[in-house]
């Protein structure tokens, strides 16, 4: 009789553990990485932020979107040599074209932000080509 109760409790605990595991996995959402083409309209070196607007054929960020670059990885790809290098904030200029990587959850939050024009990006790539030197 005691073995039957212990076995029943063991099965109940296994089922409870399985239920908790499956319910935890069910709440995960698909968070894809989006890339958006933009043009820098303002650079604030004091705050390490840039203001960008959509590139010509885009309609994602609008005319004024603020990006905090203080902890954003930034890279530059020289198309001629295919060399990718890390760049610093000081290398960004007004009218530079950039490609920003944004999580889909961040984009949803940005679009429903009630006028908030700041967005968090995962990476920034300088698209405008610089003269070799």
Protein described:
The protein is built from 2 helices and 8 strands, in the order αββββββαββ. It folds into 2 domains: 29 residues; 94 residues, OB fold (Dihydrolipoamide Acetyltransferase, E2P) (Beta Barrel). An 8-stranded mixed beta sheet has the order 5-4-8-6-1-2-3-7.
Low confidence ranges: none
Q: Classify the helix fraction into a percent range.
A: 10-25%
Multimerization status: single chain
Q: What name is given to the CATH topology of the largest domain?
A: OB fold (Dihydrolipoamide Acetyltransferase, E2P)
Task: Give the strand tally.
Answer: 8
Main sheet strand line-up: 5-4-8-6-1-2-3-7
Question: The biggest beta sheet, please?
Answer: 8 strands, mixed
Strand content bin: 25-35%
| CATH class identity of the largest domain | Mainly Beta
The H-and-E topology, N to C, reads as: HEEEEEEHEE
Distance between the termini: 85 Å
Which descriptors apply to this entry?
about 130 residues, 8 strands, 2 domains, 2 helices, single chain, eight-stranded mixed sheet, OB fold (Dihydrolipoamide Acetyltransferase, E2P)
Please write out the topology.
Blueprint lengths: L1 H25 L6 E12 L4 E6 L10 E4 L5 E5 L4 E4 L10 E7 H8 L6 E2 L3 E4 L7
Parallel strand pairs: 3-7, 4-8
Antiparallel strand pairs: 1-2, 1-6, 2-3, 4-5, 6-8
In short:
The chain is an alpha+beta fold.
